[in-house]
Amino acid sequence: MDWEEYADFWNHALIQITEIRHSAVRPWGQETSLFASSGYLLMVRGKGSLRLDKSNHGIDGFCLLHAGKGAFLSIEASDEEIEYYAIYYQGEIYARTGKVKKLSPSKNPMKQTSVWIPEAPVVLFQIVRAMYSDWDRGYVPALNQLYAKSRFYEFVYEHIRQLQLGESPSKPLDVAEQILHYIHKHYNEPISLEMLAKKWNYSMQYLSKQFRQRTGKSPIDYVIQVRIDKAKEMLSGTGASAQEIASAVGYTDVFYFNRVFKKQTGLTPGQYKAEASLGNEDSDSPWITFISSIGGMSQHRYINNDNHYQYNEKGDIYMFNGSRSTRLLTFMLCFTLMLTACSGGGAAENRNSAANAAGQEAETTGQENNGSQASDTAGTRKVSTVMGEVEVPAEPKRVVADWYLGDILALDVMPVGVSKTLLDYGAFLKPLVPASVEDIGRDGQVSLEKVMTLAPDLIITWDQEAYENYSKIAPTVVFDSTQYSDIHEEITAMGEILNKQDKAKEWLADFDRRKEAARSKIDQVIPEGATFTIVDYVTVEKFAMVVGDLGERGGKAIYQILGLTPAPKVKSELIDKKESRVELSWETVGDYVGDYVIVLVNEGQEPPKLPSTWTSLPAVTHNRVYEIEMKKYFASDPMSALLQAEEIADKLAGNTKN
Q: Where does this chain mainly localize (predicted)?
């Protein structure tokens, strides 16, 4: 066949989809029809036979047919139901330039009657199922019909591509090649090894082995690679935000996207975008230029903590790294503090005093040239951290924290500077923090210049890679909450760092009392053995996210503090496997939903239109759905988790839905 001519015909065809149908012929049943317009039928399962005009064909699994208007079709099932999707359309040639010759009916693809066994049937199935799911649904049916029409051209292209492959001397697509093609088409949709194995009807072990032999990677590692490569293209070639790019490549959670991107590339999306835009040119920012002259930016920094998620909006300020002379850094510190003192006038006299003291301390550090902080008059002590022993002030007075704000507040310590992200996504903590506490920048975009002007005597961070930079400013402790088995261990450890051991015991005693009070409150209203599920469908599109017990989105509050029982599949697929979340299609989310559902919402955001697979769930029909606010429940520190648990207990006990 002349594939160039064949494809050119479709390029000049004006298509109008008239109907998309999903139907089935029951075992030993028969269905006959006349095509009212041209159409495709894709059989996706079942056994039997079909007659298309005068030709007879057997059916055993996937089968694709096309027929023009007026064609006769008879489908007869044997002992298995035959399931199929049908796409009916009308088409004509629009004004031509003479490039396309007028085709006879025998060559016109819209009028041809044919039956095929597809080379890669699952790819065709995914396209037609997406067309059907959006046909005549949603807020704007016309928009969804436009989407279905665009997918129709994709369906035709894929069909032609497979026909062309079948005609070539090369062997048909093997399973690994089919999956490769599927991943490149659907990388922005939820993909799991279990789902791929089910679609291709292979065991996960066999499928993974075949794929690894072909690519050198597991299917999921390959999905991540494709997504990150696409994200790189968008970061360097568009002005899209991190949130927009995350959604476009299949990550509904921008924090998780940032984490994966950084692990794969060594840079945050903001840093990558800045590098791509700067190229080899000098930065317009004298501050960044000055920083760059002292030390290179780290190329291998990534988060290795599932309880920590970065939030980046407009790119990152480069953090300096390296082992250049401490004298240069000390000079920069003193110079910055001097400018701050001069520009501040008579305001905040006590801050200027603290800054001058820090400048004198930094001078001592520079003279010693060993990177350590001099002891203050109150003395120092050593604490054990993930970075080894660190000498810290005996009584820290000016603490800066880029994470773990709730742990610090629980011990009655008010930091002088925190990351804005902690307040934006820790709404329970925000009222506890006075306006005098300075913003040091969003998580992942912390301004070292700002940190230095605060003259801290202790810095608390989650990020091991930031330790070297921070420790040049003040004694720095890397705190990793994942190494503690529960809230008691976590608060006790923070108490050791801040020298607030008695306060830690006091807070934990109060925590235990409040935890038991919250549990008692719901014991009277929740039946014994009732199961719970946390679902987020407001920060995702076209599917739902189910949350485990690792912390964020209320998981720690609901499952750990309140001790509520997770739905069986939440326990087996998330909690037991230490997974923080799973993204599911609406067709399968019901498998994870328990007797009660906790749903996350965004204040001021219109909830999506929910499909019948959700609205028909028993928890929904029996009005056992409770709403929680994302900005209150994203944080997972002990103080936030306790306040979350108390609010949820009030909702359950008082039957308050929001």
A: other
In the predicted model, what is the mean pLDDT of the chain?
79
What pLDDT score was predicted for residue 621? 94
DSSP character string of 576-608: TTT-SEEEE-TTTGGGG--SEEEEEE-TTPPPP
For residues 270 and 649, what is the distance between their CA atoms, to the nearest angstrom? 39
Q: What pairing do the DSSP bridges indicate for beta strands 417-418 and 47-52? A: unpaired
> Which residue, among 174, 176, 180, 132, has the nearest Cα to 152 in the 3D structure?
132
Contact 394, 602 (CB under 8 A): no
- Give the pLDDT band of residue 75 (cuts 50, 70, 90): very high
**What is the CATH superfamily name and number for domain 327-498?**
Nitrogenase molybdenum iron protein domain (3.40.50.1980)
Same topology between domain 327-498 and domain 511-654: yes
533-581 residue pLDDT tens: 999 987 776 678 899 987 778 999 999 999 999 999 999 999 998 888 8
Beta strands in 111-208 (DSSP E): 114-116
pLDDT beyond 60 at 337: no
Strands 438-439, 544-547: pairing is unpaired
- Residue 14, pLDDT > 90, answer no
Q: In CATH, which superfamily holds the domain spanning 511-654?
A: Nitrogenase molybdenum iron protein domain (3.40.50.1980)
| Domain spans, the chain | 3-171, 174-313, 327-498, 511-654
- Angle, helix 269-278 to helix 254-265, in steps of 10 degrees: 60
Cα dist from 571 to 450, 581, 587, whole Å: 44, 11, 20
Find the largest Cα–Cα distance for the chain: 99
- Alpha-carbon distance of 170 to 123, in angstroms, equals 19
Q: Which residues contact 272 (CB under 8 A, 6 or more apart)?
A: 232, 235, 236, 261, 265
**Cα gap 467→469, rounded to integer Å:** 6
- Mean pLDDT across 285-304: 33
CATH superfamily for 174-313 is Homeodomain-like (1.10.10.60)
Tell me 375's DSSP state: P
Q: 623: number of CA atoms within 13 Å, CB side? A: 4
pLDDT in tens, 58-67: 888 889 999 9
**Which helix (H) or strand (E) element contains residue 34?**
strand 30-34
Predicted local distance difference test score (pLDDT) of residue 648: 95
> Whose CA is closest to 642, among 489, 520, 522, 511?
511
Topology, domain 3-171: Jelly Rolls (2.60.120)
Model confidence, pTM: 0.51
